[in-house]
């Protein structure tokens, strides 16, 4: 139940980020919704395919698609009347990254994957939606940005596993992991932080 | 049987579109065939993975690959001796989009997916081959074009569902849906039509 | 056992190629490892999904990820102190292409796919990791290069099937196929060879 609601929230914020990325791309409204849907379901779909979880999460439950359409239309209308807040694309992306990273990790854990694999699966689930969005809208992928990105997902999932190893209940560790990802990502953007880069 | 033939026709037209997109890309003949194959089987492969249909449609039946190779070689030879008709890439793409959108929708329907999901699955199946082709040949994805694209697939699948709800037999509704997609897409290109764009 | 070791070697060389492709992309160390991991597991993951082999090869066995991390870190350190050898990215890519093409072919053969499909599956498995790497690091995909690329994979798998048809034991044919791919690819780069291109 909790995972279901978090899945829906993750889908909504990634749908918003898809709409914001599709601005100035001359797409019509239905095209924008298709980009929003690809962004919103991309990560979870990869997760379900890799873990062989069928039916895929959005296949038999229309709620996901309804949430995507409502979130996309609301964003389209909002952006028409007020300028989108500065950094809004990156903020929505940070929350989507965080939620899907932790969701991917939870499902990999439930499939008894070893800890290192849980981190990999969480990171892949978290970054996939945004990578698809950036490829389809012909943007430089956020994952290629200088500021901490994939690293935030790795740190958040590691924190989640650590908190559970220290005896915290899973939902608390989940929220803790989400906070780590979002704080690292937005902090990195705000103060222009980055790990040593590789040249 | 009918679905099988339509699958083959969709594979052939997308293979042709892959060859046309690979022109001027300095690929050798085998490389062109690989691009044609990726374009031709991309959408149906995603459909089968998402619906957990195994074996994947082209895995045990060589006919698909033979059709791809024949269509690709014929196009290569044709283009060598006569200029490709104007818009030929977009016409082949429009038919591939239409056939795979309706095929994806049919299979999703057979898996009892709800109507909204049938539309999403049809649209994704229809656009995937072309998106792969455009990424691999480094073109601006047709899905990002200003003229009606994903919207044509959505409208065609919706028309297909509506015609069935009105009591028309499935094969008739299928053909009707294909006509809607192709007419919308080619009409949009011909008269430069587009839905209101989102800025 | 042999396939397992070859899988590990393929994963290691593609991880190295991922690190080399991520140079000058301003990624931090963890970001580089994510690119290395995507490159290294991309082809095999597609292979396992298409053949419905679960669990996916890296999902329950941490060895793969450990090999990726060690290979990536070693490459990062090496490149810091000495210039990477000329063409090093393309050499690592050629070995990854060869190993995964033959591995994909072997698994497709084990799933009783017909010969033409074995060639297609091998080629797709071979090229996918590199295509993902090049898309994510915003490079012109090697598959689009003028020098023999996908054709090398096709020739290597065809040689592998032919050697078996001539009665050679499978491991010998495997090594023969790898040699064909690497020799064709590196020979094409060295002497600027290419098949007739399609214009």
From TrEMBL, chains A, B, C:
Pfam families: Gly_transporter (PF03458). InterPro entries: Gly_transporter. Keywords: Cell membrane, Membrane, Transmembrane, Transmembrane helix. It is a multi-pass membrane protein. The chain crosses the membrane at residues 6-22, 29-50, 56-79, 91-108, 114-136, 148-166, 172-193. GO terms for cellular component: plasma membrane. Residues 4-78, 91-164 form the Glycine transporter domain. Signal peptide: none annotated. The keyword Zinc-finger does not apply. Its main location: membrane. It is found in: Cell membrane. Belongs to the UPF0126 family. This is Glycine transporter domain-containing protein.
């Amino acid at each position: 139940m909790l995972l279901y609601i978090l899945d829906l929230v993750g889908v909504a914020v990634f749908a918003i980020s898809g709409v914001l990325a599709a601005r100035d791309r001359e797409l019509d409204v239905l095209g924008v919704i298709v980009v929003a849907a690809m962004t919103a379901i991309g990560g979870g779909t990869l997760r379900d395919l890799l873990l062989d979880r069928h039916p895929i999460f959005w296949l038999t439950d229309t709620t996901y698609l309804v949430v995507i359409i409502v979130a996309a239309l609301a964003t389209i209308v909002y952006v028409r009347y007020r300028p989108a807040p500065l950094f809004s694309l990156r903020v929505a992306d940070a929350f989507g990254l965080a939620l899907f990273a932790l969701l991917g990790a939870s499902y990999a854990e439930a499939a008894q994957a070893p800890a290192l694999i849980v981190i990999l699966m969480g990171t892949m689930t978290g970054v996939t939606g945004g990578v698809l969005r950036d490829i389809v809208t012909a943007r430089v992928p956020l994952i290629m940005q200088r500021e901490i990105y994939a690293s935030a997902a790795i740190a958040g999932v590691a924190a989640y596993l650590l908190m559970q190893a220290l005896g915290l209940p899973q939902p608390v560790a989940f929220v803790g992991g989400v906070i780590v990802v979002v704080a690292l990502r937005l902090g990195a953007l705000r103060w222009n932080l980055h790990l040593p880069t590789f040249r």
